[in-house]
Amino acid sequence: MKQTLLDLMRMSRICRMALATCLGSCILVIFYFQSMFQPVMRQNPFAAEGCCRKGSRNALQELYNPTQAEFSRAALLHQARRDQVAETCRAHNVSNRKRRVLTPGDLKHLVVDEEHELIYCYVPKVACTNWKRVMMVLSGRGRYTDPMEIPSNEAHVPSNLRTLNQYSIADINHRLKSYLKFLFVREPFERLVSAYRNKFTLRYNTSFHKRYGTKIVRRYRKDATAEALQSGADVRFPEFAEYLADPVTRREAPLNEHWQTVYSLCHPCHIHYDLVGKYETLEEDAGYVLRLAGVGDQLHFPTYAKSTRTTDQMTAAFFQNISAPQQSQLYELYKLDFLMFNYSVPGYLKAQ
User: Fold this and answer.
1) What burial class does residue 324 get, using C-beta atoms within 10 Å of its C-beta: 0-12 exposed, 13-18 middle, 19+ buried?
2) Are β-strands 180-185 and 275-278 bridged in parallel, bridged antiparallel, or unpaired?
3) What confidence tier does 303 reach under pLDDT thresholds 50, 70, 90?
C-alpha cells in the first residue's frame, strides 16, 4: 500500500512537470509570434529588406557587380564618370598635393543612410533640397513616406540627418569603405548663376543680403547709396563676379557653400565616389540610385519646377555683362569642377 502511494505521488509530480513544460512552451510560442509580427508594424517601408544580413547584397555590391541588365548598362556610364574624376585628380596632382588627412569639418556635407548603406554628399543648387528630403525618407524609419510632404526648411535642419563627421574615426573608415558614396553635380557656371539668382535677387533672403550683399556693395560699387550699403539687397551680377574673383575674398574665409566648388565641398580626389550623378540627367540618375538601394518601386525622386530653373541661355546672358578678365578668373576658380565632371568650356566666354 505504501509503495502504491509513493508511485502515485511520483506520477503526480511527473504530470505537474509535464504540465508546466507545456505551459512554458505555449508562452514561448506566443512570444515568438509576437516578435515576428510587431517589428513589421514598426518597419520603415523603405528599409532595404535584409540589407544587413550576412550574405545579402547592398547598393555598393549591386553597382559594381550588377545582377540586372539595366544595371549593367548604367554601370558603364558611371565607370566612365569615375574614371574622369580620377584622371583629373592625377593630371593636376590634386590628390598628391600636400596630402592631408580629412578633418571632421571636411565631412559635414556627407549624409549617411544606415538603412540602405548610402552616403550622399550634398551640393547646394544641385537639387540638394529634394535629395535631403529623400534621405530623410530613406533613413527616417517610417516617420516620412512622401519627400514632398517635408517642408524645404525642415530638410535643411542639421539634426534631421546624420552626417559622416558625427562618427568615430573607425566608423567613418568602415562606412567609406563599405557604403555606396554618391554626389550630384551641375555645369559650374549654371550653378553659380542659380546661386546668385536665389540669394541676391529674392527679397526674402535678407540674411544673405546682410552678410554678403553689404560687403559686396561696399567694396565694388562706386558712389553706393546709403540704402544699398545698409541693405545689400540689390547686388548686381558683375559685382558678385568681382567678389568671387578677388583673391582677398578667398583669403578671408572659405567661399559660402552655395558657390563653393564641388571639389572643395565633397573632396572627390580624397574620397572615392562610386556614383556621380548629373543635374542635366537628374531624373534618370536619381532613379538609378534608388533602384540600386532597392526602393525604386516605392520611392520616386521629386520633380522640380522647370519654369524657374536657371538655364544655359540664362547663364550666357548673365556672363555677357562681365568682362573677359573676370570671366577668365571665374573659369580658373571653377576649372577643376569643369574638368573633373566633363563639362566643356562655355562657348559664350569672351576670347582674350
Assistant:
1) exposed
2) parallel
3) confident
Question: Which SS3 state, helix, strand or coil, does residue 196 take?
Answer: helix
Query: Degrees (nearest 5) of the Cα angle 112, 187, 338?
Result: 95
Mutual angle of helices 237-245 and 324-340, in 10-degree steps: 70
Q: What is the mean pLDDT of residues 25-44?
A: 36
Q: Any idea which residue has 512554458 for its cell?
A: 24
pLDDT tens-place string over residues 84-140: 999 999 998 765 555 567 888 899 999 999 999 999 999 999 999 999 999 999 998
- 252 CB neighbour count, 10 Å cutoff: 10
Using DSSP's 3-state secondary structure scheme, residue 280 falls into helix
CA distance 5 to 11: 10
Question: pLDDT digits over 132-181, tens only?
Answer: 999 999 998 788 899 999 999 999 999 999 999 999 999 999 999 999 99
Nearest 5°: phi and psi at 90?
Answer: -70, -45
Q: Using CB atoms within 10 A of its CB, is residue 11 exposed (0-12), middle (13-18) or buried (19+)?
A: exposed
C-alpha span between 230 and 156 (Å, rounded): 28
Which residue in the block uniquely carries the three cell numbers 544699398?
Answer: 228
Interacting residues of 207 by C-beta distance below 8 A, sequence separation 6+: none
Could you tell me the CA-to-CA distances from 133 to 137, 152, 160, 195, 252 in Å, in that order?
Answer: 6, 8, 10, 20, 33
